[in-house]
Structure formats: structure tokens, C-alpha cells
Amino acid sequence: MTNGINPREMILEILLQIEEGEHSHIAIRSALSKYQFLPRQERAFITRVCEGTLEYRIQIDYILDSFSKVTVDKMKPPIREILRSAVYQLRYMDSVPDSAVCNEAVKLTQRKGFYNLKPFVNGVLRTIAREMDQVKFPSREENLVRSLSVEYSMPEQLVERWLEAYGEETTEKILKDFLEEKPLTVRCRTYLNSQEAIVKSLTDQGVKVEPAPYLPYACHISGFDHILALDAFINGKILVQDVSSMLVAEAADPQKGDYVIDVCAAPGGKSLHVGDKMEGFGTVDARDVSQYKVNLIEENIRRTNSINVQAKVQDATIFDQESELLADIVLADVPCSGYGVIGKKPDIKYRVTPQKQEEIVILQRTILDRAANYVKPRGTLIFSTCTIAKEENEENMMWFLQNYPFKLESLDPCLPEELHSETTALGYLQLLPGVHKTDGFFIAKFRRK
Ligand SMILES: C[S@@+](CC[C@H](N)C(=O)[O-])C[C@H]1O[C@@H](n2cnc3c(N)ncnc32)[C@H](O)[C@@H]1O
């Protein structure tokens, strides 16, 4: 315990919030921001246990159900989360002795007022600590979907869909990659600063900087506590962005002086990148659906002093007549299921429903329909998502080609050679985690006829 704050109690509160529907990264960030004085090691422990417990929830529940008479779904929420986070530590964190994990879980059970459940928590955890190796996991031969689901802690319906779309080998690569820890990726704004100066500023503050794949200005950074305390961040020299997302501005290939509309822009990563590529010339109209979202874009515009990017509230499902046929480039980086970023936001995998999937495709098509109208003749439309669901990507792309006066245009002149393929020559790219060295992401480039 440090300064009266019990890390395991914080973990429990965060996990309960996530169970109630809060996004994991928001729940963790807001809890930690309340206790900024916590030592770095303790913050890292809290983050790791919360993220790990969530990432491995299906596997953890399988283990708990193998040892507990009360199944996980029948447990009281605080007990369930105490047990889940303890099993995560027992299985995946060698740094914490098993006895400490069990003792702390029992103490927390008592502190939360569940005196009568202390023996239960104690018994289940001590048995698991002793007999973890004897758990009989589902075998691939008997049931491939169930086996992959438990091994990689992914809901069966997603495993099933990806097996069908990508086959066993690729699906396993994707599933494995989602569980791997990754450093943060940033875009160095080399249009205003030299890469060397940016890297020096970071390393001077003790940050480890490594080149990220595919793009020379993309870096992996690690070994720091708060990004908000880094000079390169404060001064707008770096922006947090995955390489997959940086490829959108590469695919758009804006020219100085272009008029660009980004219909789903918040928090502004791609708009700002396009603005940088135009070196301060032209205009990027960065739009999003709410004032809250537009404030996020404005914050980034201010921090980066991006003079050619402007933000405004505009619902992309409502046709904006004033923009008709005006834009050289339209970016439609539409809201999506987010399956490509499950590695960073594990709660996404637990929120999947077939109904939501259908609704999201309808929303995407509505946005594409409106966005198409803003592209001037011979202009460019970039359609992108951070998902690996075919109905949101290839199927939407085909639907668009069949219904609108656009054709696909090769991405190869804009992409690094390592990413060239049959589909990039045609005009689209599906990045898959574990296959490519990025998040899962889709980009299609259309040109108006
Ligand atoms: C994938 S994110 C965009 C990320 C952004 N392009 C970037 O690079 O930082 C999708 C965005 O679509 C926005 N959105 C959802 N529905 C919308 C609508 N009807 N009109 C405009 N934006 C919408 C969301 O608020 C969200 O910011």
C-alpha cells in the first residue's frame, strides 16, 4: 500500500467500471490521473493487471469454472473481479508470489464486506495456484473454435468469422498478435522538425526510440511514464498514431493547396497528417459529429499549430450541400467495429453483437454516400476503417463501386514497396495484425470518374 491507496482496490474499482460498460483505456486513465503521485512501478502494476485481466478474461473464466462450484456468471460482481484479477496474476505475473496473490485477494474480499466469502475466495485461489497445470483446456481436434477461443481469449463468434474469412493459420497469427504487448507508435512531424532533433529531444528525456516499420517518420517509443510530460509531445513534434493510420495520408497523396474534407476526423490524426503533407498550404476541413469530438481535434490543432486545419461540428450522415463537388480529397475514416485494434482496446471483443454489426454497416454506407458527393470530378475518396470485418471493408468497397461513379486507383505509387500486393495494385489494402506489423486496418482509394 502507498499513501493510503491500495492498488488492488483500485484494480477492482477499474474492472467493475469496465464491467458496467466503461471503455478500459478511459477507466484506467481516469483512475490513474486521480492518483498521479503513485510511483511509476505501482501505476504500471495497476495498468498491467487491469489490461491483462480483461485481455485474458475468457481463458481466466474457463479456469475459474474448472475449479469453482459457483460458475463465474453466478458470482457477485466484486468477487468475480477479485478472482479474475487474482487468476491473471497467478498465471501471467511471475513477479508476484502466489501466496501474496491469494492473501491480498482474501483481504480485499473482507474489506469489501464479503466476510462470509473469504473461505470461498481463499479455497478457489489456493487450489488454482496448486493445480493450474492440470486444467484440461478444449482440444483443437474436438472443437477448433472453442479451443482457439479459450487459448487466445476471443469470443467464439469472432474466431468463427475469422476462420471463415482468413483460414486457421492467419486467424491464429491475428489472435496471438492481439495478446502481445506493443510499444507506443508516434508520427514524427518531420515537415517542421528534423527527425534527429525529435529523436534527440525524446532520448534526452530518457525515452527509448526505435524505428517503426514501413514509414521513416514513424517511431516506437517506450520507457517513459507520462507522454504528456515529454517536450516533443508538448511542443507538437510527435503525435500518437499507428502506422496503419499514417498510411491513409500516404494513400491520399495530397498536394500543396488542396481542399480536403475529413468527414469523421476526431481526434484528428489523419487530418493533421494530411495538413502536414501540404506543408501549411491548402485547407483541411476536419469534421466530427459532436462538439466534444471537435474539441479534441481543436486541442490537437493548437498543440501542433497546424494553420491549415480547421475543425467543425458536422454530422457525416447529413448531406452538406455547400460542400458538393468541392473537395480534391475526401477522407471517410468511418466509425467501425474496431476489431483491428482489439490488441489496444481489449474490451471491444466483448461488445460484439450481430445487430451492432449490421447497424455499423448501414452507418458506414450512409456516410460513404454523403462523402461521395463532396469529391470534385477526378478527385479522390479514401475509405478506411480500423477493422478486419469483410462486410465493413471489401463488401462496402464493392457496394460503393457498384453504385457510385468512382473507380479504384492503385495504392502502389503511395505505399512502401514491402506493402505492395495484388490488392494494393488494384486500390485497396487489408492490414492484418500478426501478418503485417501494424494494427488491423483497411484502406481503399477511389477516384471520381
Ligand atoms: C475511426 S474514428 C476517426 C479517427 C480519425 N480519423 C483520426 O484519424 O484521428 C471515427 C470517428 O467518426 C466519428 N463519427 C461517428 N458518427 C459520426 C457521424 N454521424 N458524423 C461524423 N462523425 C461521426 C466518431 O466520433 C469518431 O471520431
UniProtKB/TrEMBL annotation:
What keywords are assigned to this protein?
Answer: Cytoplasm, Methyltransferase, RNA-binding, rRNA processing, S-adenosyl-L-methionine, Transferase
Main location group: cytoplasm
* The keyword Kinase is annotated on this UniProt entry: no
Can you provide one Gene Ontology molecular function annotated for this UniProt record? methyltransferase activity
One Pfam family, please name it.
Answer: RsmF-B_ferredox
Protein's cellular compartments? Cytoplasm
- Binding-site residues for S-adenosyl-L-methionine, renumbered to this chain: 264-270, 288, 315, 333
Q: Which InterPro entries match?
A: MeTrfase_RsmB-F_NOP2_cat, MeTrfase_RsmB-F_NOP2_dom, NusB-like_sf, NusB_RsmB_TIM44, RCMT, rRNA_ssu_MeTfrase_B, RsmB-like_ferredoxin, SAM-dependent_MTases_sf
| Domain SAM-dependent MTase RsmB/NOP-type positions | 174-449
- The record's top EC class is transferase
Q: What is its EC number?
A: 2.1.1.176
Q: Name one GO biological process term.
A: methylation
The record's catalysed reaction(s) read: cytidine(967) in 16S rRNA + S-adenosyl-L-methionine = 5-methylcytidine(967) in 16S rRNA + S-adenosyl-L-homocysteine + H(+)
Enzyme active site:
386 (nucleophile)
**Which family is it part of?**
Belongs to the class I-like SAM-binding methyltransferase superfamily. RsmB/NOP family.
Q: State the function annotated in the UniProt record.
A: Specifically methylates the cytosine at position 967 (m5C967) of 16S rRNA.
Name recorded for this polypeptide: 16S rRNA (cytosine(967)-C(5))-methyltransferase
